[in-house]
Amino acid sequence: MKRANSHVFLALVCPLLFAGCSNSQSGSTPDDQALEGASAAVAQGDRAARATGSARDENGLSMTSGDLQQLVTTYVSGKAGVLGTIVQIDIPNREPVTAAYGYFDSTKARPIRLDDKFIIGSITKTFTATLVLQLVETGKVDLNGRLVDYLPPDCAAVLSQVTYGTEITVGHTLAHRSGLLTLSRLGSFRENVLRDPSREWTLLEIVSMLPGRGEPGFKPGGSFEYSNTNYLLLAGLLEHVTGEPYGESLQRHILWKIGLENTFLSEGPFGSNRPDVAHGYEDFEGKLYDGQAFNASWAIGAGGIISNADDLITYMTALTSGMLFQTEETFERMIHGLEEDGSYGLGIETIKDSPYGPYYGHKGTFGNTSSVLYYFPAHGVTISTCQTFDGSAGRLRTDALMELVMATLLGVDVPRGHWPADVLDYSELGFTIEEITTLEEYDAQGNVLRAKSDDGKLIKVRLKGRVPRKGRFQYIPSCVSLRYDVGNETGTAPCLAVGMIFKTKEGTEEHWVTSDQELKKITRTSMDEDATIIIHALFEVPEKSRNIEAVFS
Question: Exposure winner among 203, 206, 286, 401, fewest CB in 10 A?
Fold first, then answer.
């Protein structure tokens, strides 16, 4: 069945349901064979209807569901920790191009299906921003107004105790320019959630962590720092201003308006009593948690919505075609945010320069389920992906699969850092910091690096990772940085230089590269399973830095 022109009929059509398919491969494991057989059986009834359907627009973009299935299968198969994968591509007036590979849950009793639902994590923020901007259009909320003036009185009173708390505007909060720290950096919030996944958190409980522990890292509007705390507060704004629960506002002003029948706000454990919500699993202190056991009540407007790929694409089409706002100017304001040259608007990421042209949308992760929703206006393409993980290894980079699919669809080279399927993703390697050393001097191939600047110190960080599968490892200095806290501020330090040690069955190999050699890649083409990779990276950080962590991109 071909998708109707969603710019005209979005509010009238029901979301389409599709069955998954999979390509057989020689030498596959019994689990893979079972998956392929089951996927083929599920796809049988749908195959005739799809026939030779492909996505092709007037510019010649073309990809069949079979092409996409093969691409996804090649990318995902063999990657440690990946449980299920769903991809859907949409071009107006063309049949959606779809692929599904993997399993619904850890029992592997059935394959994941295209119509399966999943928790969308931070894509929720775009929905929340849509609702807030609708209130701005009606005059009920002022973007330049103080956030405390729109919050429940008890939450406003607590926020007023935070440094600059009364200076934070609604616009600052939407654009992640409030300075408020994210929940994962508020004491032991994450650990408390993992130790008691079913606990229901109130907004007041979370806001009460801010004074003393969540002090802003900068004055509101002075910088950008992505923070879930902003969107928890915006959910409180919505409930206080409208007088109704967040979930009801979501239904009345978005879901019912454009006919999203497979989207809803999670209440309680996010997948409870829902046989069609895919499972992801997270390991914490040696214990494996089913993501569906987590009570998503704390996430609300930051990450608590459940949906499926088709509904997400319908939502993005409605958003970009003007169906959710009274004027085009509101969506333009959403895209551009508070700064014309910024990479984040109001609840939406805006990537202006990429091999695929500009694009915008959001990505999200919750309970070891990762999802992506992006629109590429130059090509009229919308893509939605979801991946679930079994907890046995780190997550893949959320948007890596999207980039591979878009590069293939557009026929462009996969850019540096967006690795092909046989290149190991950093998240698979599970890098951990083993040692941090303050250096007085460091000799790198005869070059003595500066030991100390006027306001900082040079440190060496030793990172260790294990190779989970055979593949290539590729490294560029700009792909790793260091995040640190100093005082009440959070900063990022680029990598100055790195030493790389590969320990394999064949022996030990060493490499060195400095930051002025960004185009030089360190590539080992024969990394066997269980090989060890050790990185000695140099960074310059301020004195008295703490909470140091490595960040890969």
Answer: 286
Nearest to 522, CA basis, from 419, 413, 434, 401: 419
Do both 334 and 435 map to the same domain? no
pLDDT digits (tens, 9 = 90+) for 173-231: 999 999 988 876 665 677 777 777 778 888 898 888 887 666 687 899 988 888 999 99
Structure-block tokens of residue 187? 């004491």
Token pair for residue 326?
A: 């009274």
Dihedral sign for Cα 179, 183, 185, 189, please: positive
| CATH of residue 167 | 3.40.710.10
Residue 444 lies in domain: 426-552
Q: Which of 140, 193, 89, 155 is nearest to 406 (CA)?
A: 89
Match 């699969």 to its residue by tokens: 401
The DSSP string of 163-221 is TTGGG-BHHHHHTT-S-PPPGGGSTTHHHHHHHSTTPPPPHHHHHTTHHHHS--SS-TT
Tell me: the pLDDT tens digits for 316-333?
Answer: 999 999 999 999 999 999
Both tokens of 379, joined, read 């090509």
Same domain, residue pair 403 and 446: no
Please write the tens of the pLDDT for every residue from 90-102. 987 788 999 999 9
Please give the tally of structural domains in the chain.
2
Same domain, 450 and 366: no
Distances (CA, A) of 490 to 214, 332, 482, 541: 12, 30, 11, 11
Look at the pTM and tell me if it is higher than 0.90. Answer: no
Q: Which of 235, 460, 236 is nearest to 347 (CA)?
A: 235
| 406 shares a domain with 440 | no
